[in-house]
Amino acid sequence: MHDPRVPRHRSLETVENFAGTFTALGQLAYDGAQVSANVIDLRTSRVLVSIDDRIVLPTASVGKILLLIEVSARLTAREFSGYGILDKTPRDAVGDSGVWQHLQAPALPVSDLATMVGATSDNLATNVLLRQVGLAAVRARTESLGLMRTALLDLVRDTRGPDDAPQLSVGSTAELAWLFGALARSEIVDPLTSQRVMGWLSLNSDLSMVASAFGLDPLSHRGVDHGTLLVNKTGSDVGVRSEAGALRGTRSSLAYAVSVQFDDDSLSKRLRVMDAMRTIGLDLLEYVH
After folding, report:
1. Pairing of strands 151-152, 57-58
2. Counting C-beta atoms within 10 Å of the first and last residue's C-beta, which end of the chain has fewer, N or C?
3. Side-chain half-sphere of 106: how many Cα atoms within 13 Å?
4. How far apart are CA 70 and CA 137, in angstroms?
């Protein structure tokens, strides 16, 4: 059981110490994990948490945000239609996250595929979209945004061979928190592009990590619930847990990113990581309310 937490009533000018966050991540680091976190107040642009936030760690599916930005920018520029139909092919086939692999539909519109990526981190939809826009274009877009330590490295694969990128994506939490803050302010490419990406990500059904502390319905949280509004993206792989998002409460709003790389050789180690991420979420929730 978790010990009762005493609310830290504060004014907006009070400097938060995020003691729970530092303690939780510090313990993981002491146990041998690599940890990184960054939290930014969106009202003041003040950095609230900075823990090894420049190092590059695997971020699993978090890097799919970069694909969604490229797709949204092309829709805004009318380089292709959101109603354009894309077929799935045998070379796109991949398992794990997503629902399209379980559906009979052989083809879906571009916008529907992006929606599936935002809602369920759909791997098959990701690969089909990547085949359409090209990994090189995603990389170019990423660089144009000034992101130097964050990248989508490859398509999604069931297994990674010696000639494949070792990770689906990597990133620094400083850049990922900045990216979510810029999306929340509608500053990525242009307002329409940013708002479309935030709309897709607002459907994300994975609230198992940092967002597990927010008390939201994983399947329905697009609107404000008890004064709380969340948009986030998560990434999970063996030994990797990562999350980035934007959180608004009744008093303030923030952007955050947390990544942990750990030795995933026992359930107890994995659960310690998940507990630490929830602890971070409790600190974030207290700050915005």
Report:
1. unpaired
2. N
3. 2
4. 7
